[in-house]
Amino acid sequence: MTTLECCSNSEGGPVEEFYRPLGDGSFAATPATAGPWSPDAQHAGPVAGLLGRALERHEPVPGTRVARVTVEILGPVPVAELAVTARVVRPGRRVALLEAVMTHAGRPVARATAWRILAAPERLPAFSHAPAPPPLPESTPPLETWPEAHADGYLAAMEWRVVEGALGRPGPGVTWARARVPLVSGEADTPLVRALVLADSASGVGSQLDLSKWLIINTDLTVALHRDPVGEWLCMGAAVHTSPRGSALCEAALADRSGDFGRVLQTLLVDEPPG
């Protein structure tokens, strides 16, 4: 297993953000965005966060909130300069459908849709049928990954406090996590961004398969939130279901110190590794 160390930039110093803004909706991805499969391809967590940021900021309507985001991964997202645009697909005062597209060199690499809905009245009763999350550990040993993993990007840019299981080991698993760096330099992450940056880790936290022996690629990510999360630390309990001659499905529950706030779903391609 490989122990994580903090990610660094090309000059050898610590990375201070996932993306640097370049103006006009363009961003430079830092090494912190790199996923476990390659230092040249991004983890979909920061990708989802940047798309979610664009959706939140596009023509905001007071009294509404983004309740569901679905991200479609159109191909490997390079650790390079990207552009993000957003538009309203279906306008509405109480319900609106939004879309954001991420491109690299003019080619779409990811897209997201979101339902922005009117926030419920404060007098609505609060119901939660999920068990309370486990306590946040005061500390945990350094996180370990499978030997082939690129551990110096996204995995190191997140702080993990594992409760059950471990990344790269058979799940299900439960972990608390928070980002060590902001999504965009000079900005505080919103609750939606914090949830999205973590959410794509579900298949790693909950995987039943040996990630050194199987090629696993998620084609999409859906995050549905019945309320906005509170605080930096978020808890994820995840599990992966697989079927021969089928595919894999990852589901995860999201919680903060106050309790459950949402769900994650990922559709996963599973295949023999190349070679």
Could you outline the blueprint of secondary structure elements for this entry?
Elements: E1 2-3, E2 19-23, E3 26-29, H1 44-57, E4 64-73, E5 81-90, E6 95-104, E7 107-118, E8 144-145, H2 154-157, E9 158-164, E10 173-179, H3 191-199, H4 202-205, E11 215-218, E12 220-225, E13 234-242, E14 248-256, E15 259-271
Antiparallel strand pairs: 1-8, 2-3, 3-5, 4-7, 4-12, 5-6, 6-7, 9-10, 10-13, 11-15, 12-15, 13-14, 14-15
Helix pairs in contact: 1-3
Pfam families: 4HBT_3, 4HBT_3C
Domain Acyl-CoA thioesterase-like C-terminal: 138-270
Protein name: Thioesterase family protein
> How confident is the prediction overall: mean pLDDT?
91
The CATH C-level name is Mainly Beta
Distance between the termini: 22 Å
Instruction: Count up the domains.
Output: 1
Calculate Rg over CA atoms. 18 Å
Instruction: Characterize the main sheet.
Output: 13 strands, antiparallel
The outline comes out as: globular
Percent of residues in helices comes to 10-25%
CATH topology call: Porin
Structural class: mainly beta
Query: What fraction strand?
Result: 35-45%
Q: List low-confidence stretches.
A: 1-6
H/E order of the elements? EEEHEEEEEHEEHHEEEEE
Q: Report the CATH superfamily.
A: Acyl-CoA thioesterase, double hotdog domain
